[in-house]
Amino acid sequence: MTYLLLFWEFFKIGLFSVGGGLATLPFLFRLAQTHPEWITVNDISNMIAVSESTPGPMGINMATYTGSIVGGIFGSLCATLGLVAPSIIIILIIARVLEKFSDNRYVKWAFYGLRASVIALISYAGWQVFRISLFDGSHIRLVETALFAVFLVLMLKLKKVHPIVWIGIAAVLGILLKLPS
Amino acid sequence: MHEEKTTLPQLFWTFAKIGVMTFGGGYAMLPMLQREVVESRKWCTDSDLLDYFAVGQCTPGIIAVNTATFIGYKQRGNIGGIVATLGMVFPSLVIITILASVLTAFEENTYVQMAFSGIRVAVCALITVSVVKLAKKSIVDVPTLVLCLATFVLMVVFSLSPVIFIAVGILWGLLFSFLKEKRRKS
To answer: Which ipTM value was assigned to this complex?
Structure first.
């Protein structure tokens, strides 16, 4: 019964959180109220911290973490599948419709504008990471900013290098330079 | 385009790989998607990726999952969409379930924190490179440039819901394409 309930609660979160990982947060706080025996607000703040330092989309990590606290491995499976089920169903329907209308000129016109908006939204998400990593309040973090510049130049020069290599190098440099969090 | 060449295990493992390599949520996944899905596998183009992100922004659920479902569907239909998504979430399931009991200790470890401060800097640079690459193909004229800059500034100043800007983007695209068409005809 707990497993079904886990699936259902996360299914609802997946259905109602529009716009990515952080959009699941208000729903998780709500879950802490309706199911205090599952998670607490403290658990959620731990989850946020942990999600940032483990691979994978944050929303998925949160569902997996809650599920595993409540019901072990099978619990984490139920919560995660519940979270992704609505997306899968909705996107499969949209993908089918878009495929049919991909040659429609209005669809093309809409996407011509949409792409420019999405680039701005991605830049904004990037800006959030910039604010945390390159600035400390209103002060610029010199070491990090210098490192950023070096990375940027190297990435533009050495295009063949896989992104994960840069991430690995950055992790090592972070430890060597004792970068503050 | 359902190409026979793509197998379900290929879809699963490619997205599992992307899931493992993504640190810090949806948009941090972009550089990995570009490398794995666009450049290595050639399952879609940069512009397709932007379209998926656009749809993912205004539909429920996590953008990473929405994008995986889209690309999987394009390759192998419904089952492809499901398999790609399962691949995407598989690493999280394994890692978080194993680490769940020790996760807080892991997170509070000084070295882990230092490593992640470094990783965030690299993610900044990776996202910058990705955005430049995408912008070259999609910021093609004055209207798209104005839209992009205005959206960014408004987001920074007011941090409104992205859904609003998706709606504005659609209307903007329709309006200026219509005007362009009219000018061409006359």
So the answer is: 0.84
